Fold 4Fe-4S ferredoxin-type domain-containing protein.
Amino acid sequence: MIVAAGSVDGIAAALLANGLVLRGGFNFAPGETAPLGLSAGPAKAVLLVGQAGAAPWPHFLRWQEKQSRTIADPLDSWSREVIGAAAKAFGARAVSPSDRPYLPFQQWAMRAEGLKPSPLGILMHPRYGLWHAYRGALLFEVELPLQAAATSPHLCDACVEKPCLKSCPVDAYSAQGFTHQSCLAHVRGANGEPCRSSGCLDRNACPYGMDYRYPPEVQAFHMAAFADL
């Protein structure tokens, strides 16, 4: 069981060896409904695990090359393996955004890092922009020495032009929300090549966090997964 204050640093180091980073965390308030921890008691703390930019990509590719068969959702499988190993080492329960029933990952992330959604629904990070993701979380049955998230300006509030809502050829994103079927049909269709090979045009139009933008091959991987290509 994790008890030492320095253990959070140890978890961060273990994850960083695979390109993953701790994305903040918090202690559940007394009386708050919390998911179950490792021994089926209510969790008292959660640490979010994710990525900044494409740092995990080379680690994932090396893992994928060693697999003896094709695996459905390979990035999810890799993430579960890496985060699961950290959970085992530090006495936590590992959970994933794809677990059913779904856990409130976006709400956790906003609470842990003080972020708000962009017009695309992706949380806007003050440093990474839209180029980050959450791969899982660690649930602990003890409280952790965690500080409250710092408050940062929401970059989207200062963005007047909103290029993220003007670059999609089928206007999949708008102030009314995301039209999933329009996006999917375009990506799969004859004119969807720019999106298939280089990623979402709206996401790429965002001016923030450009140093962390995923390389084209990473964006193509995610787009293929989204469109089931």
Observations:
- Strands lie at 21-27, 45-52, 93-95, 116-117, 123-124, 132-140, 173-174, 177-178.
